Structure formats: structure tokens, C-alpha cells
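Q: Predict the bound structure with adenosine-5'-diphosphate.
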Amino acid sequence: MRELTDAADTAATNARGARLPPPWLAYVPALIVLVLAVLFLMLRARSETTGRAVNHSHEVIAEVDRLLLALTFAESRHRGYLLTGDSSYLQPSRDAADEAMQRLDRVRDLTAGQPDQQERLDQLALAIGVKLRQLEETLILRDSVGAEAAVLEVNTDEGRGIMQRVRAQVATIQEEEERLLALGQDLSTSEQQRALLVLVLGSLLAAAVSYMISRQVNAVAETQASQARVLQLQNRRLGEQAEVLRAQKARLEEAAAELEESNAALHRTNEDLIRVSVEADVARQLAEEANQAKSQFLATMSHELRTPLNAIGGYTELLELGIHGPVTEEQGHALQRIQLAQRHLLGLINDLLNYAKLEAGRVEYRITEVDVCATVEEVLSLLSPQATDRRISSNCGECGEIRVLADRERLQQIFFNLISNAVKYSDRGDSVRVECTADESRVTVRVTDTGRGIPPEKLESIFDPFVQVTPNLSTDGAGGAGLGLAISRELARGMSGELMAESEVDEGSTFTLTLPRAAA
Ligand code: ADP
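A: Predicted complex:
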């Protein structure tokens, strides 16, 4: 990543420094070269013109030289004839004179655009004409007078003067041409220098512009190269990330497949649960119906059982009282056992009836303000005959009047169950203590015994109906049906209270009843 950041920084720095030159700048060197070429061609054209002028001057000078030479030759051949009379001199003399005239014409042609030179040529032509006439005249003189007269004529001042005039005129023409020649040469040199200067400066300018463009193009190329490196790095990173993403996608696909499977399994489980729930609903309904039927059955049966049992009790008492004749001691004992069994059975049936009523929701509570301690003492006095060999005590004498909101009969029933259990499940010499306490809103009654206690795992189930820790093991052998605590808790809850138990095996048990306190 660091590599990528560095490369990106370099590329950014380069990009800031490098700007692509404007496109028109690329044409500048070409333009310079074009201007140079035009200038060069112009200078070359001018130089050629100057060169032609120089050549022309050379040609004029040479032609005038040859003219003078031909005229001199014609004169010397002519003189040879005059002196010797040898006619072989004559023809070369005439040819040279013709040549001189031709040269003169040629020079005229060459200097056609130079009025001054034309004028000088006119003068020259005049002098040459005079000279040629003199030569002709001396020929005639020789033929007529003699050679000596002819030579004398040639050597006169006038004869020499004509030739000097010719030479002077030739010199004037040549001087003019030499002046022009010098001018042309100067011009040619300065033009060449100018062309050279233009060429050098133009080349330097073109080279400078080219150098500038190439520098900028190089800088841009460098920038593009670093950007290309950054792009390559990014490309590589993207490739790696794509690889990671592909792997993640594969994992996600696997997870999705697993999820689909789990989903299908959950779906199946859900369907099973719905089926089980429906079955459970049906079962619960059946159970409720069965329970209802059972409660109905128990209520009916208890009622049907209580009637004959009460009759048994009544008749037994009548027999015991001797209304139907005297009763022997043995018969008396038998009657007492019958009464005991009858009361036990009646108790069981009453429990069954009460529980059936509770389950059927047919119990009605008449809530009033009830004196807790008075109720406890009533129950204690009811139970005292059975508890002669237990040490029963309570704090009811000290705690004064504590009133609860309860159904007096139901409260009595709860205390009866709790205290009779404490007596039932303790041994001779054990103690049973009832304690009432109260705070602002609740009243608590604890029934504590030092009896055999209840194993911890059974502590909660003893409130379920028909549960007995050890069936029929109360000290007097007259155990209940396992309904007393179930009924008591239901009654407590029915009066907005609660019933709880604490116990330790062989140490004893404490049953705690809480109820709402009546307002003071
Ligand atoms: P039962 O008619 O059997 O007494 P209960 O519902 O009153 O039915 O009590 C259920 C069981 O709880 C009893 O069988 C007994 O084993 C246990 N139990 C109740 N009270 C005490 C107690 N004070 N000490 C020990 N065990 C008790």
C-alpha cells in the first residue's frame, strides 16, 4: 500500500509540474524553417541577380579588352602591309577590324540597359570608325603615292591620337564596369553575410524552440510513465482484491448453502413444532376435559361418600352413648377406632372435595379484615388434644392485634394444615412455633417445627397435589392424601398471598405464609 501511495505522490507531483505544450507550439520550428527557407530563397535570388551583374561586368570588360586587342591587331597587320607591301597582312587586318566591330556590337548588346555606357560606346564607335577610315585611306595612299607617304600619314599625331582616343574611351567603359563590378561584389558579400546571419539565427531559434518543446514533452512523458506505474500498481491491487472477493464470494455461497440447509431443517422443525403444538393443544384440551371430569367426579363422589360417613359417625356416637343398649368395654374401644377411622376418612374426603372445588374454580372468597393471632390461637386450641406431647408455642400473646385481608375460614384452613403438618411430621418432644410479624403492607406468619424436615429436591414438589415425601409416615400413622399443602398454597394465592417452605432434613421445617395487611 505504501508503494502505491509513494507512486501516486510522485505522479501527482510530476503532473503538477508538467503541462503539455500548446499544440500550435509544435508548428513553430516548422514555421521558422519555412521563413528561413523563404528568406534564404529571396537572398539567393538577389545574390544570383548580383552575381549575374558581376558576370555581366566581367564579360563587358573582357569583351572591350578583346575589341581593343582586335583593333590593335588590325592596326599592326595594316602597318605590316604598309611597310612590307606583303598582301598576306591585309586579310588578317580586315578580319581583325571586322571582329572589332562585332565585339563592339556585342558590347552594345551587353550594355543595352546602361544609357551612360551606350553613350560611351557611341563615342568609341565614332573613334573606331575614324580609325578604320584612316586605315582605308592609308591603303589608298600607299597604292597611289607610295608606302613612305602612307607610313608617314599613319605616324602623324592625328593618326596616333585616334588610337589614344579609342584606348581612352575603352578605359572609361572599363572603369565604369569595374566600378559596377566592385559594387556588385560588395553587395554580394553583404548579402551572403546576411543570408548566413539569417541562417544561423533562424537555426538557433528553431533549435531553442525545439529544445523547449522536447523538454516539455519529456516532462509530460515522465508524468505519463509515473501515472502508468500507479495504474499498474492499482491494477495489481485490484486484482488481489478481486481474488479476495472471489474467495469471500465462494465462502458466502457455502454459508448460503448451509443457511439454506439450516433453513430447510428449521422449516421442518417448525412444522414438527406446529404439529406437536397442535397435538399438545388437543392433548391439553383433552386433559382439561379429563381434569374437569375428574374434579366433577371427585366432587360428586366426595359428596356421596360424606353422607354415609356422617351417618356412620352419628350412629357410632349413638352406640357409644348406649342409646341402643349398654356397650361393653371392648365394644367401646372398637367404636372409638371406628370413629377415628371415620374422621380420618372424612378428612380425606373433605380435602378431596376442597381440592376439586379449587381446581374447578368454584371456590369463593369472602375477604374481610381478620385478626391473624386470634385465628392462630383458635387453630392451636383445636389441635391441642393431638399435640399433647409436642412443645407448642406462639408469639400471638405478645404481637397484639394484626389484621389481614382474608377469608376467615380459608385462613383457618391454611393454619390448620400447616400446624397439623408440623405436629404430624415431628416426633414426641419436638417443638412447634408460630410467629406473626408485619410490616406496613404485608403480614407474615411462620410455622416452624424441629421435626424430620424435607429433602431439598422435594421442597417445591410438596406443593403439588398428591405428593408425599414418604407416604403414610406421620407419627400417628394417619397420613393425608398429599393435598393439604396444594390446597393451602392455592387458598393463599386466591387471597393475594403466598406460601413458601424452607427445610433441612432432620433439622426441621419452616412454612411461611404472607398476606396483605388490612389498613390500620
Ligand atoms: P399430607 O396429607 O400427606 O400431609 P400435605 O400436602 O399436607 O399432605 O403434605 C405433603 C407432604 O409434605 C407430606 O406428606 C409430608 O411428607 C411433607 N410435609 C408437610 N409438612 C411437613 C412438615 N412440617 N415436616 C415434614 N414434612 C412435611
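A: The longest strand covers residues 508-516.
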